[in-house]
Amino acid sequence: MMSTEGRGLILDEKLLFERSQPGRIGYSIANLDVPAIAPDSSMTRDEIAGFPELSEVDVVRHYTRLSTWNYGVDSGFYPLGSCTMKYNPKVNEAVARFPGFTDIHPQTPEALNQGALELMYNLQRDLCEISGFPAMTLQPAAGAQGELAGMLMIHAWHEAKGQKRHKVIIPDTAHGTNPASSALAGYEVITVASDGILSKEAVAAVMDDDVAALMVTNPNTLGLFEADIREICDLVHERGGLVYSDGANLNAMMGISRPGDLGIDVMHFNLHKTFSTPHGGGGPGSGPVGVAEKLKPFLPVPVVIKNADGYKLEYNCPESIGRLKSFHGHFGILVRAYSYILSMGGDGLKRATELAVLNANYIRARLEGEYDLPNKQRSLHEVVFSEDGLQNECHTLDVAKRLIDYGFHPPTIYFPLVVHGALMIEPTETESKQMIDEFCDALLMIAEEAKTTPELLKQAPVRAKVKRLDEATAARKPVLRWELE
Amino acid sequence: MRYLPHTDVEVQQMLDQIGVSSIDELFSGIPENCRLNRPLDLPAAKSESETLSFLRGLAEQNSKTSDWDSFLGGGAYNHFIPSAIDQLVSRSEFYTAYTPYQPEISQGTLQAIFEFQTLICQLTGMDVANASMYDGASACAEAVLLTIRAGKKRNKVLLSQALPPQYRETVATYSRYLNVDLIDVPLQKGVTDQAELKSLLDDQVAAVVVGYPNYFGQMEDLAAIAELTHASGARLVAAVAEPLALALYKSPGELGADVVVGEGQSFGIPLSYGGPGIGFFAVHKKDMRVLPGRLVGETVDQDGQRGFVLTLATREQHIRREKATSNICSNQGMCILMVGIYLALHGKQGLRQLAELNYAKAGYAKDQIGQLDGFTVPYSGESFNEFVITCSEPVATLKKRLEQQGILAGISLGRDYPDLENGLLICVTEQNSREQIDRLVAALAGGES
């Protein structure tokens, strides 16, 4: 029976396993040019039950159809707050596919891969200049792994000084990864209320000689620059602690302010945010970490160095926290980020920051009044509205889903936790005024619809592949794989 | 700049709407003592063609596997990548999307992850797989942490010495400040010594971790190790650095593993100097709620239509914060696609056939080298893709000598295994022709010429 579910170009596509036909093949394998031998039959398995059997055409069509159900930055505006969904330049994709970058084995002698090592060395140097830190590691696979690396280095530094400290202070506006990474590094988390901007007094009230570090995000998740950061760093240092800065929002600071100059001891980057590498449906990302001089001995291995013989990977670092993953970081992502820095130059990066902040403030100016803005301070690259004031029991979730019907990816919702029903909008610099105007028009119309025809919000989305999904049942009765019947 | 769409007129209109006179004014929240106040000292912006040619210059200084007779493995494997993969993963609806927080407009990514989870379960013989980890080594570290969480105050973890060294180092980094006691299990003939294992097991052991195949390419007797492990109430973690072996050998799930982790790079992901790859992570149903990482589940929409969502999020950092099962908040989405496409193309028959081809090639090389004077193949057990040889000639000299003949002979084992100071780990895949293998054998036999 032909399916009648598909509508127009919203094409149906079953699971791979449901498309499978016994005996169908989609592969081409080299001929056997050595004697055939068989492994010990007591150790071999039967065929892999349920594994698909498909032609190349089946597979190509399958994934092509799946792709059409996705919304990406190339589909349209994607103002997911805190995720910096800027345009992913195509030249980055082209260079990352050079065979001299993709077809190199990580265990090749260093002298034979000098180009790759030079690229990593240059990227370390450029990230140091952008952030103001004297040393850098490119090893961490993602921002969260960078946080772990940073917190482990802090722990190792205290340990080397013979200090046992047990706590880390984290403001209530922080990403969930901050407390999770601190816990992984062996610390207890002390949450401080920030009231928008973190005050020196709030830190002083909890800063004692059992606190290993303060972990802040600057600008914070409300888009506000932590104006007392220098004084706060001084305070923490005076009492023997270190300061970690989450670099998630570095897109608001390039060429304007450098965390390393402010007294911050360690910061991770998210190359997939600030440096335009693609988010890839969730990854791979890359989370380099910059550190102050005093933390340099603790950097994870290997470190890329340059000496008289050229570039090399240094493993002989006795105080290092060790290895975070196999090999040398997400090299393929590093290539893309470096390509971006080359394309932008220092002035271009600063201009990107300026326009990102302009875009966010323009959205704020257009929507303030119609949407509730809890924090009135001057904000930078993102703006966070609350759901207060929405009419007829309409909530943030409804606004987000209705935006889908208007052709936009919704902002981040319900984060940061300190804002009631948060709508966290980060436009980035790569969106034009026209695009932002269309988005603001849509949000203003949705606010109007909430007053007059709230069912349009409650039913939304109606123009996507599927309607609202039953997430409660998904969690209560988990179906996490296809099963052979 | 071509990525920045603003015209001067638009900038002015926007400033007017905001009610400020300049962009600088927007930064007034940044105190003067926090300003850089000088231009960034970076090279001037390059045009697209300059960027391409500069980076091509760096790429051309590297040694491509395809230009050498390469026998390097050790956790990164040179397998053929079908052309369809890059064509499909280049669809920017996939690669310019983020984590599927809004499922209605992310069904492509979500269904692809659901299929990936299923493929990993089928390969490993497990019930539940997550939406991936950074790589095999970090997945192995997270597996150790899972066993500690689930192990009711047990804090010892036994690591086979034949677990890949990079995995062991990563486990050590992750557990550095978590009061976990890591203990090495010695080897016997290239595999985990079961008598030693038995003597180390007690009621404080949360997990035993072994490679399958192990770092030397040897297939461990997982069933026997599982029996010993379970008898002491611990969990068995099997770490799979070369998952193609799972198309040929019994799955770790079938043999009694409680957690199966590994590296998926073999399945269609370029070597790319060692990253990105993809970690996989699979458990039995009983451990489903202590899993780290993202999970995709099936559900229905308001009209009863099938759809997929991120689920069981109450394990995760954005909800549980410091009490989360992990700090991870990403999945290797692009690599999930590569692996999914690779496995779908090869399917049930192709993957087995490819594994048999790899087995035969490595077997041929092992046999030929074993017959040479001055070389021994010390381990006689079943091996997949990789094997150890020991040489009478110093390994560094030998490698250098072969390098001059266009051969990357393998990985020196002396740094990680002092007992194998003259040991070399050789990897042979379907990418190595018989002629390449014969050249390797002849070059090894050539001695100091």
Q: What is the CATH-assigned architecture of the largest domain in chain B?
A: 3-Layer(aba) Sandwich
Largest sheet of chain A: 7 strands, mixed
SSE order of chain A, one letter for each helix or strand: HHHHHEHEHEHEHEEHEEEHEHEEHHH
Strand content of chain A: 5-15%
Shape descriptor of chain A reads globular
Q: How many domains would you count in the coordinates of chain A? A: 2
CATH class of the largest domain in chain A: Alpha Beta
H/I helix tally of chain B? 15
Protein chains sharing the most extensive interface: A-B, 202 and 206 residues
Oligomer: heterodimer
User: If you compute it from the alpha carbons, what radius of gyration of chain B comes out, rounded to the nearest whole angstrom?
Assistant: 25 Å
Strand order in space, largest sheet of chain A: 1-7-6-5-4-2-3
The count of DSSP E runs of length 2 or more, i.e. the number of strands of chain B, is 17
Fraction of residues in helix of chain A: 25-40%
Give the overall pLDDT of chain B as a whole number.
97
In short:
The complex is a heterodimer of chains A (485) and B (449). By secondary structure, chain A is α/β, with parallel strands linked by helices.
